[in-house]
Amino acid sequence: MNKGNATKTQSGFASTVLLGAAAFLLVLAVVSAPEPAFQATLQALKLWWNIVFPALLPFLVLVEILMAYGFAHGAGVLLDPLMRKLFKLPGSGGWVLITGMTAGFPAGAQAAASMHRQGDLGPGEAGRLAAMAHFCNPMTILVVIGTGLLHQPAAGYLLLIVHWITGLLAAWLFSFFRRTPHGRNDVAKPNKPARQVPLLKRAAAAALEAHKRDGRSFGRLLGDSVTRSVQTLMMAGGFILLFAVLTRVLSENVLPLLPSYFTSGLLEIHLASASISSSAFTNSAMQLAVLSAVLAWSGISAQLQSLSLMRDAGLSWSYFILKRIVHSLLAFLVMLVCWKPASSLSAAIVPAFRTEPPQTGQNGNIFNLWTGFPSVLQTQIAFFLLIAAALWVISSIIVRVRR
Q1: Is 278 helix (H, G, I), strand (E, B) or coil?
Q2: Which ranges carry the Nucleoside transporter/FeoB GTPase Gate domain (predicted)?
Q3: Domain-wise residue ranges, the chain
Q4: Model confidence pLDDT, tens digit, residues 18-74
C-alpha cells in the first residue's frame, strides 16, 4: 500500500516537474521572439471569432434548451434499439451522437456531461459516448475547408461523409470489447404492455417526464444555457490560442525539418487544415487522405477541450486517444479507397495543388462564417433533422427485424 502511494507520488512529482519545465521553455521562447507569438495569437483569435464561435454558439444554446425540455430522453426511446444493437450503449446516447455529428466538438462532450449531471448516464457510459460523438463541425469541413481552403465544395462533402462513416465504424469496432449495458442509468427496456404503446407516444411521454423533472422556467433556462455555452466557447478559445503559439514555437525551433502540417496536425485542427491545403503532395488522393486523418485525430487542442468537460464524468484519457487513433487510421484508409470512384463521379472533387498560402480572403483575413450566419444555422438544423431521421429509421428497422 505504502509502496503504491510512493510510486504515485513520484509519478506526480515527475509530471509536475516536466510540465513546469515545458511551460518555462514556452514562456522563454515567446519572450525571445514575441513577434511570431503575437502573430500566431492574433491569427488564432480571428479563427476562433470568425469560425468557431458562430458555428457553435447557437447550436450549443439550442442543445441545452432541448435537453431541458426532454428531447434527449425522447430520442433515447426512439434510438434505443440502434444504440444497444450496434454500439452496446444506452438509447439516450443517441442524442449525444446526433449533437456531436451536427455541432462538432466539444458539443458532444458537453451533451454527455449534461446528461451525466442529470443522472441519465453513468460515468463509464458518458465517457464512451463523448469519445464516440467527437466529430468535427460539418460547417468547418464544408464551408471553411471545402470552399474556403480547397476551393472545391465537392471535396468538402467527400471529407464529411468519410469523417462520419469512419467515426461510426470506429465506435462499432470498439463495441465488440464490451457487453450490452444493463446499468441503472440505461434506458429501461419496455415491458410487454408498454411495447403495445406506439413508439412515438412512449418517446413523447419520456420527454414530458424529463421536462417536469427539470422544472426550470424558460427565462432561467435560457440564461443558464447561454452562460454555460459561452463558458464552453471561452474555454475552447483559450485552448486554440495556447496551441497556436505552441505550434508556432515547435515548428520554428524544435521540429523545423518536418513538414509544416505535421506539428499543426498534431496540435490544432484548424491550423492543420490550412497548412495541408497549401502543401504540395504527390497526388490528390494522398492530400485528401492526410486531411481526412487529421480531421479524425482532431488535434490535442480539441481533445483537451472534450476531456476538460468530461473530467467529472469518467472519460478515460487512454480510451479517448485510442479511439482517435483508430478513427484517424480508418479515415486515411477509407479516403484512399474511396478516392478513385469518387473522383470518377465528380472531377470537381480534385483539390487545387499549390505551394503558396491559401487564399483565405483579402488582406490575409480568416474565412468568416458571420457573413453567412443564417445559412450556417439553417444548414446545421437541416443536418440535425436528417441525422435524427436516418438514425430513427435504422432503429425502427432493427425493431421490426427483431419481431
Answers
A1: coil
A2: 52-119
A3: 50-186+205-402
A4: 656 666 666 666 666 678 778 888 888 888 888 778 877 887 888 788 888 888 778
